Amino acid sequence: SGGKDMTGRLWDAKTGSAGPVLRGHIGWVFSVAWSPDGSQIVSGGVDAAVRVWDARASMLDAEVQGHTDVVNSVAWSFDGKHIASGSLDGTVRLWDAATGCPGPVLHGHVGSVRSVAWSPDCRHIASGGEDNAVRVWDASTG
Question: How much is the mean pLDDT over the chain?
Fold first, then answer.
């Protein structure tokens, strides 16, 4: 989970007790998502950064910059190769999950992007924005 205490937190699903804390964001953490294999977690928040964490060691693996405002949503592709992030800056950004290298930047929403999700075949990204629009993007070309 993510919260206003500037951390991500892991929880024991059986007992509900708090586990390791992921520290590094500056401000609220708005979105977290597991990698498909469960080895990593991606997070985004007020500081406009997208961070990738080693889930087992609870350590920061990578930080990627590109958004110019709050990151509202992050999502890992089902094949584990890419991350999508949506921001108050009105963009959806794609990242190579292994290297952190930026991919296409998707423009089209008017206002904040509130949600991003991958299609099961990893060929498309859906995004929802405060413009009341849902957009479907080609993941390879935008």
Answer: 90
